[in-house]
Amino acid sequence: MVLDRDEDADVRDLPGVAVRWADCRFAFWNAVTLTEAGTGAALLEKRLQEAAGIMRAKKQPGFLWLFEDLLADDARAALAEAAERAGLVHVFPGTGMAGDLLPVPEPHHADLTFERVTTDEQLTAYADLNSRAYGFPLDDGRDGLVGSTLWKRDVYAYLALRDGGPVACAATVEAQGRLFVVLVATDPDHQRRGYGEAVTRKALYEGGRATGLTRATLHATVAGAPVYPRIGFKPNSPMHFYGLKS
């Protein structure tokens, strides 16, 4: 995703820290994450300082994605204070989920029709749904997606349409022998009607049918966390998204 946005993007695997940073306006394409299992409190302190230093060197803001299950008990207890010392602020929580759940039945929803994203117009609609759902300016989402060949060709990205207008979206992409569910969003005016679940099932159905894969993974927000177990996902690691203090 990051190299699709910018072929010269910062994509590095450092000791204990992975960098995936497009330095574009779409914050989800600007990411660092810690990668070592069993990280203790002292090492956590060091890695958070390193990650924050990488983030400060960039033009555009992004997130440190931290998977709690990689931390030892003493590091979990020290996390809040260590993040504070590194100049990081907790932005929102998440939950890692996975499941050997494919294939899934072809979904149907009485209100919806589904379209695969194959044009820039559809990709703009997809970007705008994410921006509205996450509270980003519309130009930020468009900066991350519009014009992408990858999203129109290799990503199984779908819009859910109600009365011809896009109300929700979801995508899957093949990654390391599984389907990764990415950028699920529902228009704030159309939430709690099952639209997000329906279009996620559609992206899984089509991605699974095309690839033959059986395992899927995702990172759930608080809003999405109750939805995905109904599809067959099981929670694993709690997640934390950090940004730099302003």
TrEMBL record:
Record Pfam families: Acetyltransf_7 (PF13508)
GO molecular-function term, one example from the UniProt record: acyltransferase activity, transferring groups other than amino-acyl groups
Superkingdom to which the source organism belongs: Bacteria
Entry keyword set: Transferase
Domain N-acetyltransferase: 112-246
PROSITE patterns according to UniProt: GNAT
UniProt-listed InterPro entries: Acyl_CoA_acyltransferase, GNAT_dom
Record-linked Gene3D superfamilies: 3.40.630.30
UniProt cross-references to SUPFAM superfamilies, sorted A to Z: Acyl-CoA N-acyltransferases (Nat)
Name of the protein in question: GNAT family N-acetyltransferase
Species of origin: Streptomyces calvus
Origin organism lineage: Bacteria, Bacillati, Actinomycetota, Actinomycetes, Kitasatosporales
